[in-house]
Write a structure and sequence with these properties.
The structure holds 2 protein chains of 2 kinds. Chain A is α/β, with parallel strands linked by helices. Chain A has 9 helices and 16 strands. In chain A, the strands form 4 sheets. Chain A has an 8-stranded parallel sheet. In chain A, helix 2 runs parallel beside helix 4, helix 5 packs across helix 6 and helix 6 packs parallel to helix 7. Chain B folds into 2 domains: 94 residues, Translation factors (Elongation Factor Tu (Ef-tu), domain 3, Beta Barrel); 112 residues, Nucleotide-binding domain of ferredoxin-NADP reductase (FNR) module (Rossmann fold, 3-Layer(aba) Sandwich), CATH 3.40.50. The mean pLDDT of chain B is 95. Chain B is built from 5 helices and 17 strands. The structure holds flavin-adenine dinucleotide, flavin mononucleotide and FE2/S2 (inorganic) cluster. FE2/S2 (inorganic) cluster (FES) binds next to loops of chain B.
Chain lengths: 300, 263
């Protein structure tokens, strides 16, 4: 039975990675899961310099999901290169580095620093709803998506995954723009912009007022968008948004994703990634599927 | 590798101490005896059985009985998660993870323990441990005369009470009680609401006393990965590379002088 996939030229031992920002750089989860068993680890967004992120509260629970407004707190690329990459290099898994920035120059600075590093892929976050500059501002206009993708591709040594925002009218258009800019793959969905009000304190639940919604409540939206994006482009798709179980992951795969990421589920079950990998294998065994690639996009 | 995990605990007792305040003993399998490494000030994450409530609820460890593989928590029902926990009965199970975070560092010398409201429970195990080789005074701050847990401190410490309405002990807050009773300390250990902790921090600074305080923040992962639960630190933190520390991983107990409480 084959669980491995070729994702934009990178061989993954299975189609399961972690969703950026929910898994740090893996160090905090190493006591819970065997990192060697992951197809890849996708790290928390990293910028050219350290970012403090937003004030607290940054987290609130919602029905079947959550809102977060971390604001891309990160230690900056220097410490990341010095500490996080060597840590992950101890494991037999692929490294996908998620990159954020306030300006195109800032993204490119990080991409250039990573060019000389032994990492497997870059995931470019042009879809974070929680920062004022950069982030989502780049991800909502097809022209800008194409432009920034093109500029990043000029400097990147590794294959580039453009991470798309669900906060758009037409996801297919964004996917096509990334492809036109030269993206090697796309990932989606990032979080949906949401809000929660604390009626007892008559205030916003999050200090940032709005936050990004994730978790199982967003899954049907995510599956639909992955389906639409996968049908719009010829580059591979990394699907995510509310995956809790192998069954959820298989929905994304059948909708057209050749890889999937597990995010918010890690908070509910630190072993979620392992459970998803095992569950996919069980499903294949039970249904006589020899090769996971047979399932990718099988529903159309 | 893979040696920490979410585990299932058996509830051996569940008692309502006061309106909305519950005390629960949890028992673990011997091969998952998380009580063995637990120290006062650490917390556990409790998971809801309801699929719509994904995030774990952090609750401090109130008492540790390592030889019996047991931990005690005392919690206030404030929302849907704690309400669910309060309905569990002896024999039921609950998924938990822990012990998490850094607990109190036990210093030599005179100890004053300060607990405010639902910050009182973690002070009980601490009082027990400290009383083995130092003099311990405990100052408990309540709203009114519903003095949950107070009697349980009495075997280990001199117990002083403050109440907001003045019905028992010193009228006012815990700092008023410390002053009124002229308590002196080498270390103050505190858990409670932020205004109380700010008072403790200021008092400790004025009197050149060391202070350790336990903080609260909304959490998602509970293990240091998501950066949801940060507090502001005085100096740049080595892990985050900015002036933020993670309450769940670097805390919840901090040296008071290392963190900024909106000051
Ligand atoms: C380190 C630490 C130790 C704690 N120890 C205790 C204890 O010993 N006893 C006790 O009664 N309470 C304690 N708390 C507070 C406790 O975590 C909350 O009261 C509880 O999570 C509320 O859950 P709920 O579903 O009933 O409330 P809801 O308001 O419905 O919860 C919604 C969400 O907000 C979170 N939340 C709500 N209030 C708090 C809070 N004050 N702090 C952190 N998260 C919160 C919940 O975890 C949940 O994710 C502690 C908190 C922290 C951070
Ligand atoms: C706490 C938290 C932090 C996140 N941080 C990032 C980030 O730094 N970069 C990014 O591209 N996406 C980030 N995301 C979005 C996730 O990677 C993912 O796209 C989204 O949560 C949907 O998947 P899920 O429902 O499985 O969590 C974050 C999500 C959460 C919940
Ligand atoms: S709750 Fe995730 S870092 Fe503290």
């Amino acid at each position: 039975m084959n669980l491995s996939v070729d994702f934009a030229g990178v061989r993954m031992k299975n189609p399961v990675t972690t969703a950026s920002g929910t898994f740090g750089s893996g160090a905090e989860y190493k006591d819970f899961v065997d990192l060697n068993r992951l197809g890849a680890v996708t790290t928390k967004g990293v910028a050219s310099v350290p970012w403090e992120g937003n004030p607290t509260p940054r987290i609130c629970e919602t029905y079947g999901g959550m809102l977060n407004a971390i604001g891309l707190q990160n230690p900056g690329i220097d410490l990341f290169v010095e500490r996080d990459i060597p840590f992950l290099k101890q494991y037999d898994t692929n490294i996908i580095v998620n990159v954020c920035g306030r300006t195109q120059e800032e993204y490119i600075e990080v991409v250039e620093r990573l060019a000389e590093q032994n990492v497997d892929m870059l995931e470019i976050n042009i879809s974070c709803p929680n920062v004022e500059a950069g982030g989502i501002a780049f991800g909502q206009k097809p022209k800008l998506v194409e432009e920034i993708t093109g500029n990043i591709k000029k400097h990147a040594k590794q294959p580039v995954i453009m991470k798309l925002s669900p906060n758009v009218t037409d996801i297919a258009e964004m996917a096509k723009a990334a492809e036109a800019g030269g993206a090697d793959a796309i990932s989606l969905i990032n979080t949906l912009t949401g809000m929660k009000i604390d009626i007892n304190r008559r205030t916003f639940a999050l200090a940032n007022k709005t936050g990004g919604m994730s978790g199982p409540a967003v899954k049907p939206v995510a599956v639909r968008m992955v389906y639409q994006a996968a049908h719009a482009v010829n580059i591979p798709v990394l699907g995510m948004g509310g995956i809790m179980t192998a069954e959820d992951a298989l929905e994304f795969i059948m909708a057209g994703a050749s890889m999937v990421a597990v995010g918010t589920a890690n908070f509910n079950n630190p072993n979620a990634t392992m459970d998803v990998i095992e569950g996919i294998a069980d499903f294949m065994k039970g249904n006589g599927v020899e090769d996971i690639n047979e399932l990718v996009g099988c529903v159309s | 590798m893979a040696d920490l995990k979410k585990c299932s605990a058996h509830i051996t007792s569940q008692v309502c101490l006061e309106t909305d305040i519950y005390s629960m003993w949890l028992k673990f399998n011997e091969d998952e005896n998380i009580a063995l490494n637990a120290v006062p000030g650490q917390f556990i994450s409790l998971y809801s059985k309801a699929g719509n409530r994904l995030l774990p609820r952090p609750i401090s460890i109130c008492e540790i009985n390592a030889s019996e593989c047991m931990l005690r928590i005392v919690y206030r029902v404030v929302g849907s998660g704690t309400n669910e926990f309060s309905k569990l009965l002896p024999g039921d199970t609950i998924n938990i993870m822990g012990p998490l975070g850094n607990g109190f560092t036990l210093n030599k010398g005179k100890a004053v323990l300060v607990g405010g409201g639902i910050g009182i429970p973690p002070m009980l195990e601490l009082a027990k441990r400290l009383s083995e080789d130092c003099g311990v005074s405990v100052v408990l701050g309540y709203r009114d005369n519903r003095l949950f847990l107070k009697e349980e401190f009495e075997p280990y410490a001199d117990v002083y009470v403050s109440t907001e309405d003045g019905s028992v002990g010193t009228k006012g807050n815990v700092i008023d009680a410390i002053k009124e009773n002229k308590l002196d300390a080498d270390t103050i250990y505190a858990c409670g609401p932020i205004p109380m902790l700010r008072g403790v921090k200021d008092y400790a600074k004025e009197n050149e006393i060391k202070a350790q305080i336990s903080l609260e923040e909304k959490m998602a992962c509970g293990i240091g990965a998501c950066l949801g639960c940060v507090c502001k630190s005085k100096d740049k933190d080595l892990h985050s590379n900015v002036n933020n520390k993670r309450v769940c991983k670097d805390g919840p107990v901090f040296d008071a002088e290392d963190v900024r409480l909106g000051d």
